[in-house]
Structure formats: C-alpha cells, structure tokens
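PROTEIN DESIGN WORKSHEET
SECTION A - STRUCTURE
LENGTH: 328
TOKENS:
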C-alpha cells in the first residue's frame, strides 16, 4: 500500500481514549422528569403501560420530587389527572386553584422553592370530558381562538401556583403570544414559556393517554403535526420564536431526530426534546422480554437526542439515568 489507510479505530482503543474523545455527554442537570399527580386516590397508582411510572397522590409526589432533585435532575414537568367527575367541556379544573395540577404545583413549590425548575403542562386534554386539547365549536371541531383564552387562564393559574415554566402543549396557533401577554398582565414576567414547538400526531403517545385516563375519541390531527412534514416544523419554530418562547421543544424525540436537528440549527434559544411515553414503554417492554438491555438502551436513546441537538431532555427515566451518571 502506498498510503496508510485511515484508522479511526485508533480513537476507540481504550475506555480512557473513548472517554476523552466523546463529543456528547449527558449530565443529570439537563434531564427533566415528567410526573403525574392524580385526584381522588389514596395510594400512588402504577401506570401499567409505563413500568416504574405512577399516578401520584400529592404526598407521594412530594416525596418523589424530593428524590428526583436529590438525584440531580434539572427540572420537573407536572401533569394533573383530575377525577372523571371533574372533567367538563372547557376543562375548568385546569385553572381552578384547587384543581389537582395547581395543588400539586403549589405543594412542590412550597417544598422545593427554587431548588429545581418547576414546569407545568399547559393544556386542556387532561381536564376536558371530550379529551381534546382545546374547546370545541358547535360542529365539534377544536376552536383555536376560544382555546387561547382558556390557555391564558391555565397559564396564569399555574404561575400563581408556583410554576417557574409553563409548557403549552396543545399546538394552537398563537398560543405562545397569548400566554405571554396573560402572564405579563398578571405580573409574571419572570415565568418562562417552554413552547411545544413541533409536536406531531404520534402513535407513541398511547401509554400517556392511559396515564391521564384520556377521554379522547378520535384523534388530534387537526392540531398536532403530520409526521410526513419537516418544513412545517420550521414554520412553527419561527412563529414561536417571534411570539416570545423562551425555550422550544420537539416531541416525540426518537422518531423526529431530524426535526430536533433542524430546530437546534435555527433556534437562538435552548432546545428541548421529549422522549414520550411510547418511546419509554417500548424500551421497557423489550427489556422485560430480555430482548434488549434496558439501562443501556435508555442511556443510548437519550444520548442520541442530545447528539441530535437538544440540550434539555424530558424523559421518564430521568432519575435512574441521573443516578447512573453520578455513579460513573
Ligand atoms: C397533550 C400531551 C400529550 C403528551 C403530553 N401532553 C400528548 C397527547 O396525548 O396528544 C404526551 C406525553 C407522552 O406521551 O409521554 N397535552
């Protein structure tokens, strides 16, 4: 041979070498744990399709949040699960200060203060009897602008309850601008908006809908994005940046890593990605059958999301990954 061949394997020879040249590393502080707090239960209730994840009582939520913060996770994203009897057409339990989500937020903020970043899901689907993320018009469609008014009320209630960050996840047009205005008018200029910028109509949300006992009949394809589309995510991003989003998010993560990359290249703000319920559950399910190594697969999946360009990752495995990173 005239010329030595390229030998990239040289940089893989030892663990120390691989560690030195690693281009991406996870840190517990970039992980956000999504948590569910449910009304009307006395004991934490396991979510069958999400091994290790539960619907919390307010007390068990407080204990689990404390543990997550001790493990070093960077933030908590709280979802509320009201009793079925408290659901109605406009999702009024969502902005009731005594509604389960706002009670959960208040309890966590009282316990944890500013020791973590407390985030709230700002959406109606958990609270509506029809299960849609917005209010319906007289033909049964989701009414964009009427929903914005509801999101404003939700966001203000969450900020008053102690959320540092509100996370509008309903994919209504104009939701970031509407929420920013309402927060500012109520004096919450310091409360941030984590915009669900590109959220796709995904089959991988299945286990989450069990977790929140979703009443949805039908689908969300008139507001969540079509999995076929890439350019539309850029359009959504430009709108959210323009409307004042503080952080932007892509969801789901693993089937949408190209979108994570697009958004990371264009956004001048932190980019988050959400490893959703189905992404988590399928790893757990395959691992339960002995087909893959749960820990290695979860670590690799989350690392791939960071490599794609997200600096913040929402994952149901946040605490266990944080423990592993600390032990390393
Ligand atoms: C809607 C919402 C969804 C998730 C969080 N908020 C999706 C949906 O039901 O359409 C999914 C999270 C997950 O699957 O882990 N407000």
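SECTION B - SEQUENCE
RESIDUE ASSIGNMENT:
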């Amino acid at each position: 041979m005239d010329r030595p061949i390229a030998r990239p394997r040289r940089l893989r020879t030892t663990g120390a070498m691989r560690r030195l040249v690693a281009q991406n590393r996870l840190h517990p502080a970039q992980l956000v744990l999504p948590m569910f707090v449910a009304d009307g239960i006395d004991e934490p209730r396991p979510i069958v399709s999400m091994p290790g994840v539960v619907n919390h009582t307010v007390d068990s939520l407080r204990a689990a949040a404390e543990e997550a913060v001790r493990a070093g996770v960077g933030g908590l994203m709280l979802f509320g699960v009201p009793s079925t009897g408290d659901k109605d057409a406009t999702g009024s339990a969502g902005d009731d200060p005594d509604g389960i989500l706002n009670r959960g937020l208040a309890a966590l903020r009282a316990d944890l203060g500013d020791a973590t970043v407390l985030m709230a899901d700002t959406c109606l689907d958990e609270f509506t009897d029809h299960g849609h993320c917005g209010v319906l018009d007289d033909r049964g469609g989701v009414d964009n602008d009427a929903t914005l008014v509801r999101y404003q009320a939700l966001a203000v209630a969450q900020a008053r309850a102690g959320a540092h960050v509100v996370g509008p996840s309903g994919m209504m047009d104009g939701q970031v601008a509407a929420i920013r205005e309402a927060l500012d008018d109520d004096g919450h200029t310091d409360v941030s908006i984590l915009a669900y910028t590109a959220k796709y109509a995904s089959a991988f949300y299945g286990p989450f809908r069990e977790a929140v006992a979703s009443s949805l009949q039908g689908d969300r394809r008139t507001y969540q994005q079509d999995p076929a589309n890439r350019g539309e995510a850029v359009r959504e991003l430009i709108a959210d940046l323009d409307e004042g989003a503080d952080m932007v998010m892509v969801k789901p993560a693993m089937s949408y890593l190209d979108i994570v990359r697009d958004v990371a290249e264009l956004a001048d703000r932190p980019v988050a990605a959400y490893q959703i319920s189905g992404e988590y559950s399928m790893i757990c399910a395959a691992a339960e059958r002995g087909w893959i190594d749960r820990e290695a697969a979860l670590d690799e999946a989350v690392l791939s999301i960071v490599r794609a360009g997200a600096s913040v990752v929402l994952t149901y495995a946040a605490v266990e990954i944080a423990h592993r990173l600390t032990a390393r």
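SECTION C - NOTES
The mean pLDDT is 97.
Residues 71 and 320 are 8 Å apart (CA to CA).
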